[in-house]
Design goal:
- The complex is a heterodimer of chains A (230) and B (329).
- With 230 residues, chain A is mainly alpha-helical.
- Helices cover 77% and strands 0% of the residues of chain A.
- Chain A is globular, with a radius of gyration of 21 Å.
- The termini of chain A are far apart.
- Chain B is α/β, with parallel strands linked by helices and 329 residues long.
- Chain B is 46% helix and 18% strand.
- In chain B, strands 1, 2, 3, 4, 5, 6, 7, 8, 9 and 10 form a ten-stranded mixed β-sheet that branches.
- Chain B is globular.
- The relative contact order of chain B is 0.16.
- The chains are: A mainly alpha (230), B alpha/beta (329).
- The interface between A and B is large, with 53 and 49 residues.
Chain lengths: 230, 329
């Protein structure tokens, strides 16, 4: 068994170094789909996080703890619910999103929204509240004051976005149930790893797993390097 | 949470935004292509790779993009019933008939066959090598009850699982009873995974030939073929189009073209030739000519009694705009 793993690693590096078109296109597709999901999630999580972070309102703690509780939502559970909703006979079937890359992106965006909102809210809350007050004293409107706070918390927001992307690119449940692992269309790194290992192509499975690990690690290292320079 | 300067943070955000924008553009472009054909199919067909070859050839001839969703036969049929696929490629006649009867599917064609095999550990503690399938199962139950061996069931409602349950029943053994016994394990997984579990536990299991040969050749398992003869082990693959009058969204035109391709000489040659080089024997035997010209009467009678409904591969009431598909009847 150890031999098989070593052999798998050797073949994995061969595939990666020789630029195998199948491996490359699967990796590129993963990045594009999860990138889109991250953009979508950021689009609605930034304003949401800003409002929760800056303003005080009734039920704020309930809203915050709801998002925190949803941090660990199992991707498979979300996948089943979305499958039933997007199925041609489901309530959202008319969108024809099932088995499309866009469908996966939408599902992953929903999956990572709690992470994005929670992290962004924390980032914004960690900014000195004086800044908000000071901006308003200097004659800024509420919106302008909020943007001043957002500028101060860029680092935290960037971290939130990276963490969201990492979760999206590494999840399996949504990609499998919504995407269906269709070759050349919705086959991404995680679904390909599951399938190739399942059908005995261990080397290919390990190669794809290494790429996924490298991708996630590279993004985290990038964040650390940028963060450590200050 | 902090550590980035604003400028660097903005750069990271811009970088991510650019990647994401590229993603949106790519997705918009890729989803605007022509109408595709979704085929839900069984893992045993898909995992051998034969369908990728079929899909590529079909694309060459018809320029129709085929998307295969690989699941067990039970799940493949459910996908079609929900209207999420246009064609099913399955191997469980007892599940196909209700699918036709409910009006979910039309125009069934038998496209290929092969044989299931009972595989097990080298030492064959249950002594089933060379027995008839039903005798073998009786011995396996005895040995299992005595605590000598284990049996791994797919347990996933797939075509192979359906076959396994039918075999136990034919051997006069109540599956509901043995399910509770400690020698009878359910993997709840595809064929490849189940073979690996059986290998790991040195257990017996029912397998299709294609997946078994592939795993054996790749050195992933050391299980032996123990029972390979007997009409009870016949495995018949059929294709069925989703009924457009029940599911108006289904791509019926594409589905019919795909069925016509599978039963054409090109399609049949492709299926029959697949795996010859790698395994020195075909993984699937084409069925169309056999059914038309009765080239092997004994085999034909097996297929008729196992996979025909009312003496036909698709009785007339389950046909719809079938064209010349059944003209030889």
């Amino acid at each position: 068994m150890v031999e098989a793993i070593i052999e798998g690693f050797e073949k994995a590096f061969q595939l990666i170094l020789s630029g195998d078109p199948e491996v490359l296109s699967i990796s590129a597709r993963s990045i594009l789909i999860s990138g889109t999901a991250t953009l979508l999630a950021a689009a609605w999580s930034l304003p949401l996080g800003l409002v929760i972070g800056v303003r005080s309102f009734r039920g704020k703690r309930i809203v915050r703890s709801t998002f925190n509780a949803l941090l660990g939502i199992p991707a498979v559970a979300l996948g089943v619910i979305l499958y039933l909703a997007l199925s041609r006979s489901g309530p959202l079937g008319f969108f024809h999103m099932l088995y499309t890359p866009l469908g996966i992106a939408l599902g992953q965006a929903i999956l990572i929204t709690p992470i994005a909102v929670s992290f962004i809210t924390s980032a914004i809350e960690s900014v000195d509240p004086e800044i908000h007050r000071l901006a308003k004293t200097l004659g800024a409107s509420e919106t302008e004051a909020s943007f001043a706070v957002l500028r101060e918390s860029t680092g935290g927001v960037a971290l939130a976005v990276t963490a969201s992307f990492n979760r999206a690119v590494a999840e399996l449940g949504v990609a499998l149930m919504i995407g269906g692992n269709i070759r050349g269309s919705t086959r991404v790194l995680t679904t390909a790893i599951a399938m190739e290992t399942g059908r005995g192509e261990l080397a290919l499975g390990i190669a794809l797993a290494i790429i996924l690990l490298l991708l996630v690690a590279a993004i985290s290292v990038l964040m650390n390097v940028l963060g450590g320079r200050r | 949470m902090q550590g980035l300067t604003s400028v660097e943070g903005v750069l990271v955000l811009v970088l991510i935004a650019v990647i994401a924008m590229a993603g949106v553009i790519y997705l918009a472009l890729s989803s605007s292509t022509t109408r595709r054909l979704v085929i839900s199919t069984t893992t045993s067909l898909y995992d051998t790779g034969v369908l990728d070859a079929v899909g590529a050839k079909f694309w060459q001839q018809q320029k129709i993009d085929v998307s295969f969703i690989s699941a067990g036969t039970g799940l493949a049929i459910q996908y079609a019933q929900r209207g999420d696929s246009d064609v099913i490629l399955v191997h469980a006649p007892s599940k196909e008939l209700p699918f036709l009867q409910n009006g979910d599917g039309v125009n069934r064609k038998i496209i290929a066959y092969n044989f299931f095999i009972i595989v097990g550990p080298m030492d064959d503690a249950a002594k089933v090598r060379g027995l008839s399938p039903l005798e073998a199962l009786k011995k396996i139950k005895q040995a299992g009850g005595a605590g000598v061996i284990l049996w791994i069931s797919r347990g996933d409602d797939s075509g192979t699982h359906t076959k396994e349950k039918a075999l136990w029943k034919a051997a006069g053994i109540d599956v509901a009873m043995i399910r509770g016994e400690s020698w009878y394990l359910e993997a709840g997984a595809g064929m490849g995974k189940t073979l690996q579990v059986a290998d790991e536990k040195r257990a017996y299991t029912l397998s299709d030939t294609g997946t078994y040969l592939k795993y054996l050749k790749d050195g992933l398992i050391s299980l032996q073929e123990l029972v390979t003869q007997g009409k009870e082990l016949l495995n018949v693959y059929s294709v069925i189009a989703v009924n457009p009058s029940q599911h108006p969204d289904a791509n019926f035109q594409g589905a019919m073209k795909f069925i016509q391709f599978l039963v054409s000489q090109d399609g049949q040659d492709l299926i029959g030739g697949y795996g010859q080089e790698d395994y020195e024997q075909p993984l699937f035997y084409p069925a169309v000519r056999l059914l038309q010209e009765n080239t092997n009467p004994e085999l034909l009678s097996w297929i008729r009694s196992y996979a025909y409904f009312d003496g036909s591969e698709c009785p007339p009431q389950y046909r719809y705009q079938e064209g010349a598909l059944y003209e030889e009847d």
